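Regression test case RT-17, inverse folding.

Input:
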């Protein structure tokens, strides 16, 4: 099938885009980049009367492509785009789509849509057909996308640079095989644990991610409620869009507070002390972000925070910087350049430890050397993380780094890991490689976008249910039974 290059020049199609008869973000997309101009043509029969003859001809011509675009593409550059100002649209791809497209619409708890990886039959099946159920965390992705503004979706989903680490994080999990033991009593599997003194129902926690009000009006308060329902730890980002006190008031789960090191130490100290007063149980210092890496999607979108979203914990000057739009720049990167202190070293951790009694967890460790230094400088925990592929592109996948960090820490403090944990099997693999717990970033935001606290709870309980299923089928009924012998 030839690529429909003429779409870029098509006046009727552009007119249709302007009139809104061509839907810019619809259920037809799956793994493509989103932006306001992404062409996903509403093509089922119920909508055909909204198009005139020339538009219908175009629709019919491009429909197979939009369906192919729904396929899981291995090439992250593949996308439909319409330039914001010129209105020119194009489909770009290095390799084109090689897999069959996703299945029909999914309806669950109202009007939710989700693709599934599916069979070739779906290509021919009329859209609007089968109703499928969300059965795994990945199924939340498409309906979340459909609910989010495209620039916010890009912000959440994107990685840095060519997104090599983002992809590698996932591949590292997929490369591991499980070694099940049989005839073990697995009639009662337990995923409960203690972590830094807190009782948790699950080793799966919420990673700190910024600005949850992008996904839901209740923002981090809904997230914490959902995590509480799942018995999960929540790490609240310094850039939360609800104040840390509001989140604490809404939460029924143990909370940790994440910090970046601000140039203004008074603000940093203030945050740490507020967190302590509000009942947070640990501080998480993110150390992989002396500056924000270039995230190409955000640069292309000239990303700014929506007017009604702000970093609720910080003085208004921070908010102003993150709303200031400049072509070819991400306002968040600009803000970080102004306010993050890139000069701090290990020695500075002593200052942070002095101003608070809370245990300090260091997030963003990928080497044995830094793991040792973290412990030597008083870390009560270490999070193996490459920021979900959003900082140093090309950095080692967190799962690959995990064993050397675990060996270097040598049981002196808990080691957590994050980055592309998407199933209970992934959690099991991380635990087998020595993690005490895992954190989950993007999927929590998908659940939040789809159905608020309930969606967050669903994502976390689904992961935990999968974990206990893997534990049973692999013959490891307790978390302490999951070790290196369980994987290859
Ligand atoms: C939208 C988004 C915002 C994030 N914001 C923060 C943040 O404010 N602080 C932080 O330490 N990490 C932040 N991270 C990184 C996460 O804590 C975590 O390392 C990463 O999301 C894990 O990968 P996953 O999303 O594939 O699960 C963010 C990640 C995403 C996707």
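Golden output:
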């Amino acid at each position: 099938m030839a690529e429909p290059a003429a779409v870029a020049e098509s006046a009727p199609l552009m007119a249709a885009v302007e009139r809104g008869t061509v839907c810019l973000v619809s259920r037809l997309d799956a793994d493509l980049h989103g932006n306001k101009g992404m062409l996903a043509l509403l093509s089922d029969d119920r909508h055909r009367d909204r198009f005139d003859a020339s538009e219908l001809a175009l629709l019919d011509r491009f429909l197979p492509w939009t369906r192919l675009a729904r396929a899981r593409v291995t090439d992250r550059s593949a996308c439909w785009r319409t330039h914001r100002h010129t209105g020119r649209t194009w489909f770009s791809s290095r390799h084109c789509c090689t897999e069959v497209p996703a299945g029909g619409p999914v309806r669950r708890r109202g009007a939710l849509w989700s693709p599934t990886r599916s069979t070739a039959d779906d290509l021919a099946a009329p859209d609007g057909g089968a109703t499928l159920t969300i059965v795994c965390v990945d199924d939340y992705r498409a309906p979340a996308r459909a609910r989010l503004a495209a620039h916010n979706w890009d912000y959440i989903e994107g990685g840095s640079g060519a997104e090599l680490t983002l992809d590698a994080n996932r591949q590292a999990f997929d490369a591991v095989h499980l070694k099940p033991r049989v005839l073990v009593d697995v009639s009662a599997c337990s995923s409960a644990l203690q972590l830094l003194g807190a009782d948790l129902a699950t080793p799966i926690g919420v990673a700190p991610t910024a600005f949850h009000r992008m996904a839901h009006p209740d923002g981090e308060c809904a997230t914490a409620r959902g995590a509480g329902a799942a018995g999960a730890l929540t790490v609240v980002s310094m850039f939360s869009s609800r104040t840390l006190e509001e989140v604490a008031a809404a939460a029924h789960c143990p909370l940790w507070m994440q910090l970046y090191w601000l140039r203004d130490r008074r603000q940093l100290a203030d945050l740490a002390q507020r967190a302590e007063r509000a009942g947070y149980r640990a501080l998480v210092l993110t150390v992989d972000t002396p500056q924000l890496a270039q995230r190409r999607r955000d640069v292309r979108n000239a990303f700014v925070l929506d007017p009604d979203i702000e970093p609720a914990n910080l003085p208004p000057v921070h908010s102003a910087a993150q709303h200031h739009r400049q072509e070819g720049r991400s306002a968040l990167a600009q803000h970080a350049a102004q306010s993050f202190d890139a000069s701090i070293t290990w020695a500075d951790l002593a200052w942070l430890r002095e101003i608070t009694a809370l245990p300090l967890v260091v997030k963003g460790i990928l080497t044995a050397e830094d793991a040792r230094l973290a412990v030597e400088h008083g870390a009560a925990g270490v999070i193996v993380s490459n920021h979900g592929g959003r900082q140093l592109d090309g950095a080692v996948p967190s799962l690959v780094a995990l064993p050397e960090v675990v060996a270097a820490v040598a049981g002196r403090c808990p080691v957590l890991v994050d980055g592309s944990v998407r199933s209970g099997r992934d959690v099991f693999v991380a635990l087998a490689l020595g993690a005490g717990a895992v954190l989950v970033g993007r999927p929590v935001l998908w659940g939040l976008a789809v159905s608020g606290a309930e969606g967050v709870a669903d994502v976390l309980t689904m992961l935990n249910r999968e974990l206990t299923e893997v534990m049973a089928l692999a013959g490891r009924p307790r978390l302490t039974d999951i070790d290196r012998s369980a994987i290859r």
